[in-house]
Design brief:
It catalyses: (R)-malate + NAD(+) = pyruvate + CO2 + NADH. This protein is 40% helix and 20% strand. By secondary structure, it is of the alpha/beta class. The strands form 2 sheets. The protein has a 10-stranded mixed β-sheet with strand order 2-1-3-12-11-4-5-10-8-9, sandwiched between helices. Strands 6-7 form a two-stranded antiparallel sheet. It binds 1,4-dihydronicotinamide adenine dinucleotide and magnesium ion. 1,4-dihydronicotinamide adenine dinucleotide binds next to helix 4.
Length: 355
């Protein structure tokens, strides 16, 4: 029997409510495909910060290192500034483990009413590939003349050839693998003088390696409008860290509830474990009520299966999610217009996987 050791970090708030449902589904799909998942639980969270002054122990990354993958819930809680929880746990994992791809499917699921009119499942079905380690999110820069009228702040964006080429190549490889014929690049080379013309130059160079894939590039402003007005046109969208961050929330926003959206922070070379987590946060407004939608967490686990080479099992889980959502008599959490609990929906999906 194949065995995988997973690091499980539920984090804060509803992370603790949706994680058990993902593990429930993993147990079922594992039994079905003859795979065993071992779970090592880590309770690192804002609670950890409040009691120890750090989001994780000093050897935290070393303790995660040897797992096959990391399954994360959500991190962040009122009382701990968000930049502390983010830079104390999520960003060190992404950067130290060179998880340079942030991958998010944008897919309109059956039974979900999107905020854009007249769209059916199939109309919105694409992937956002966000660069996850460099670009605009850097600590380069500084401040001078603090508190004076000449105060000045510099924030520098850094684009390396290695970083730019590898994210673009990942996007093209993904398009090839999924049989998607088109890659769109998010740019802003009309306004940003150095980095974005470079981004365009590298996009053209990498695109030339994939002659069967058609390409275009949109400035980020019109690209945002097109995500809403004509989402059908996209297959794979590749973007820098900042643009990708925005697009990868806008995409799921266009498809309905944020509670269903998954993501992967991927180290394609598999030198380090990759992290799979729902797009949503800890949702303090509904935490503790048992009504959070577990689909984002369950779908993230399905992306993890795919990454581990268990593509059939991953597709099985996604199909089960779609079947349950399409079934009007199946349980639905309040964000989907129903009255079901997190556990009701998680059990329904687990049963659908069992078949
Ligand atoms: P949020 O995603 O936690 O909540 C936004 C809204 O969506 C809330 O009304 C919430 O109830 C709803 N929502 C989110 N997930 C849901 C689900 N599964 N089912 C039903 N409804 C759901 O974002 P917010 O409020 O901006 O952030 C709360 C905390 O989470 C902050 O501390 C923030 O820093 C953190 N956060 C962490 C993320 C992560 O761990 N990757 C991502 C986003 C936010
Ligand atoms: Mg974001």
């Amino acid at each position: 029997m194949q065995e995988y050791e997973l690091a499980v970090l539920p984090g804060d708030g509803i992370g603790n409510e949706v994680m058990p449902e993902a593990l429930r589904v993993l147990d079922v799909v594992g039994a079905k495909y003859g795979v065993r998942f071992g779970y090592r639980h880590f309770d690192w969270s804002c609670e950890t910060y409040k009691s120890t002054g750090a989001m994780m122990p000093p050897d935290g990354l070393a303790r995660l290192r040897d797992h096959d993958a990391i399954l994360l819930g959500a991190v962040g809680w009122p009382g701990v500034p968000d930049h502390i929880s983010l830079w104390g746990l999520l960003l060190p994992i992404r950067r130290e483990f060179d998880q340079y791809v942030n991958l998010r499917p944008v897919r309109l699921l059956p039974g979900v009413t999107p905020p854009v009119r007249d769209k059916q499942p199939g109309d919105i079905d694409f992937w956002v590939v966000r660069e996850n380690t460099e670009g605009e999110y850097s600590q380069l820069g500084g401040r001078q003349g603090e508190g004076t009228p000449t105060e000045m702040v510099l924030q520098t964006a850094a684009f390396t050839r290695r970083g730019t080429d590898r994210i673009m190549r990942y996007a093209f490889e993904l398009a090839r693998e999924l049989g998607k014929p088109h890659v769109t690049s998010a740019t802003k080379s009309n306004g940003i003088y150095h980095s974005m013309p470079y981004w365009d130059e590298r996009f053209a160079a990498i695109a030339a390696e994939y002659p069967e894939i058609t390409v275009d590039q949109d400035h980020i402003d019109i690209l945002c409008a097109r995500f809403v007005m004509s989402p059908e046109r996209f297959d794979v969208v590749v973007a820098s860290n900042l643009f990708g961050d925005i697009l990868s929330d806008l995409g799921p926003g266009v498809t309905g509830t944020i509670g269903v959206a998954p993501s992967g922070n991927i180290n394609p070379e598999r030198t380090y474990p990759s992290t799979f987590e729902p797009v949503h946060g800890s949702a303090p407004d509904i935490a503790g009520k048992g009504i959070a939608n577990p689909i984002g967490q369950i779908w993230s686990a399905a992306m993890m299966l795919d990454h581990l080479g268990l593509a059939e099992a991953g597709a099985d889980v996604v199909a089960a999610i779609e079947r349950v959502l399409a079934d009007a008599s199946a349980p639905r959490t309040p964000d989907l217009g129903g009255k079901a609990t997190t556990e009701d929906l998680g059990r329904a999906i687990a049963e659908a996987v069992r078949g």
